[in-house]
Records
---
Amino acid sequence: MNILNISKEDKEVVVTLDADELVRLCNVLYAQEKYDDNLHYTLYGNLMMARDLCQYGHIDGFCFERIAKCRSKLK
């Protein structure tokens, strides 16, 4: 992970992640599906999309199904 910018005023952090880091983050979020809230589903869906595009250049069927499941659970 490379931290590019941290802003207390904007309450945001800009980072770059490599493919291995994305895979690890997605695996952690997959294992923590007990968190039934919008933040979890938004993070998990977006990270899976970024992971597949970074690793393979496309979104496979498994990933697409998981993203759709996450988005359907957003409240």
---
Amino acid sequence: MSEEELITAGNDAEILINDDVFNRTVNSLVESSFSTFTSSKPEDTVGREATYSFYRALVDIVHTLQQRVTVRDEIINRNNSEGK
């Protein structure tokens, strides 16, 4: 990706991170997966692993968005310090 594309991706990611609807949706899904995991039977390893994988996917999405914002900020700071 070009720097311009990385900055755009960071801007888009920041919009999602700061969006109340997005955050409520992710939080609801996390709570639901936690509830499903804690109410599952210990012998239901397939179900528990699927629930855990779903939770990890949600966490990965949020971390990816945060990483895109960080990359954008680093590019902007570097360009500002170089006088671009």
---
Amino acid sequence: MEKEDDEEVKKKINSTIVGMAQSELVQTHGEAASQILQAFNGVRYDSEGNDLGHLGRSLKDISKYKVNPEYSNQNIKQQSGFSAELIKEARDNKEAILNNKDIRTRTTDGIGQTNNQKYDHVKVDSSGNVVENSGSQMKFYGVDKNGRYKVIDKIVTDESWDRYDGQIDIPSEQYSGALEYADKSLKKQANVLREKGQIAKAEKLEEQAKKYDEAKKRIRKSNVSSDEAIEARCNPKKFVAEEIIKDSHNAGLEAAKGALILSGSISVAQNIY
């Protein structure tokens, strides 16, 4: 009888510990998943439900922006850039929560810096203070019919872009192509010109080549694609629902994996004891 009681106690201990771990997992994944809902509604809360304040846009608001019928595609693409900023913020913070990190991403207009000319995003600590040198810009430009990446050309030729001293986030699907575009064979062309004695032209190309090399260092692969940004602009409810479903699925997998690991660990500990 005593042996049976011991077995029953072990089962209860197992259930209690696994249940506690699952509860923490649900809390963590719930907070992580809520980030995209907050982006939709235009609010920001911490893990304890305290209102952090948000002064910027929401996915819901952006979906209601006016569109000129004659330039609808152009307008939608431009406005989707605002949606991309909010998706990046939500996804950055989701990852931070899942990895138990205190640093959060905020849009500059969300913290009241509406006219910030340098950054679209900054990192903030647990007290809400902006982390030094954490600012970044987001540019969701397209690729023209000739395969030219506008963001690369802008970095190289537009002096006004020199004010962006942080990383420049571009659509995830464009990153590898942008690197290839920036890695032009200008140096080879310059060498050919040098061999022909056209030194001035060669030096000009070499100078351009340096700028393209610098452009490669300044761009960063965003965690948002152009298609996702457009979907969030045109149908934010559908986009948010899809994000929540993916997060719920991942949480379920983690819960199952965690239960197996915990149960196994408890069993080994009890056997050793």
